């Protein structure tokens, strides 16, 4: 049994010490599904395992560096009234020492204080004695194990001494003289050496068909997929892989991010969530990618790659939101300019019509005045000139229709809006055309900036975490314990909070 925040079965009850030793050497706190200290759950799981094997009596040896009072009470509750005993092998020191981490720092609690672990030898010894077992402290010369074995009654060990084992004895060497007599004719001149040369030449040049047949006979699909993966043939590797994590990694490196995401469907470990986030980020599904990275940090707050990618995606999302707001403001400004241009065109048209009617009226008056008396002609002309100068409007300098320029207040207001969204130019123009240019330049600049930032974000995203750990036997132990954790209820408390 291995335990931390919960307990897990590493091997069924067996007398094969070599198998147990091979599994134990790869144990570490990093591969445990839940961090913590729940020795009582380990004892409970050990009793359940022996009961399922049909054993009603047995001895449990607990390896521990600390036992809290709640753990001790829970262990007594499990073993009281049964025929199971508990022996304890204690690790650590009574005076206490800090706990070093892999990065060289010391373990701290939630308040930032250095944790000093102390092993309660006295309480452990009392617990083992009350449950019919023995107590020993760790020694480098194996005397601790010998002490526990000598003081315990291992009936299964004594019964195994009387068992017999049938071992086949090899008597095949008696047939060697007969085999030599059959081989003697081959030692004639010109027979054995050409045969050996032919065998060496033919064996040195296997055909591709023979190589593929040999690979298919001695390598499974995952192993063949790994060979293609290492040769950068990611499409072929993805088709061969049976392991979903390897398949996802191959699809990712082949650029098929949707297939990489689909291959991880149903997998919810920290690495799987992180790889899902990378695939979603490449698919530009920023909200879902951010959610995946947040789940990773909720399970592992010290995941540096997830922190980096999460901050990068949030910045990219914020830039997209600012860009959308800027485009909306520009559309509103264009609509306002169009609405202002329409009334101006109507006013100029009305002004032209009034000017035309005024000229027609002047011409009619001049015709009427020509029919009057000749002596009054000069006075009529003078008065007519005065009427013309007062009634007819002066022609404007811009006789053709032009787009209406915004007033100074509107120009300043639009420039302030552009400055609030993203500062572009140092000087603001007061004319409508300059204001329009200043509104169009941020849009083009923002597109170029967005494209460059997008390329930079894609290049800065950390690569999909390869599952090279599948070659590591500790990965198999971790997978085994994760499967057990899915089938069990999550413990309400994991004991230690550091």
TrEMBL record:
Report the superkingdom from the record.
Bacteria
InterPro entries assigned to the protein according to its UniProt record, in alphabetical order: TPR-like_helical_dom_sf, TPR_rpt, vWFA_dom_sf
**Annotated coiled-coil segments of the chain:** none
| Compositionally biased residues, Low complexity | 366-406
Segments for region (Disordered): 336-469
Composition bias, kind Polar residues: at what positions? 418-458
Biased composition regions of type Basic and acidic residues, renumbered to the chain: 459-469
One Pfam family named in its UniProt record? TPR_1
PROSITE patterns, A to Z: TPR
- Would the keyword Chloroplast be found if you checked this record's keyword annotation? no
Stretches forming TPR repeats: 270-303
Entry keyword set: TPR repeat
Which SMART domains does the protein's record reference? TPR
Q: Would you tell me the protein name for this molecule? A: TPR domain protein in aerotolerance operon
Taxonomic source organism: Vibrio maritimus
